[in-house]
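Allow me, if you will, to draw on your knowledge of protein folds for a short while. The matter concerns a single protein, recorded as an amino acid sequence and a row of backbone structure tokens. Kindly check, if you would, that the fold set down in the tokens agrees with what the sequence suggests. You will find the record immediately after this paragraph.
***
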Amino acid sequence: MKTKYFMFAGMMLFLLSSTCLVRAATIEFNDVNFFDSTSGTKVIFSADGSSVEIYESGDATTFISNDPFLGFEPELITVGADPFFIEFEYQFIEGAENIDDFSAFVYHSNGNYDQLRWEFTGESTPSSGSGISGDGYKSVIWDMSGLGLALGDILGIDFVLGTGDQTNDPDQYLDSYVTIRNLQSRLQ
């Protein structure tokens, strides 16, 4: 009798704990998953795919993009059940006397870029403060809940390091960079 009770209690504990788990999908940074605007000259993917470094270039922007709607990159972000989140951490180091910015964009699977759903513009990362991890990274969490996304919708994502107004105030130093890590889509 005790054996049946313990089996039942163990099964119930497993069922309760499995419904409370956070299910996350880690998205690897690599040249298969993301288009690199510089063909490898200013973008460095880590060997294990956990992070990417984007360096300022003489062009107006340096970026990586996962745009499955053009048919080149794989579908990395598929909307799960509500609530649904996309998150990453970044460290943006802006050189002295620079006017650079770091942005991230998420696109809806309809491929209509005029209907940009979410945009984030990050400030350069201070060494400490509110929302800063011990190693100097800031966290960004996009809550996609209640935005009318359907289960199975595909999203695209871009990370952009812009060099500011090159016409009126040219940035001659080219010493800013951003490191992005721990890109995930998750439920709950």
Summary: The helical segments are 2-19. The two ends are 38 Å apart (CA to CA). Residues 23-187 form a domain with the Jelly Rolls fold (CATH 2.60.120.260). The longest helix spans residues 2-19.
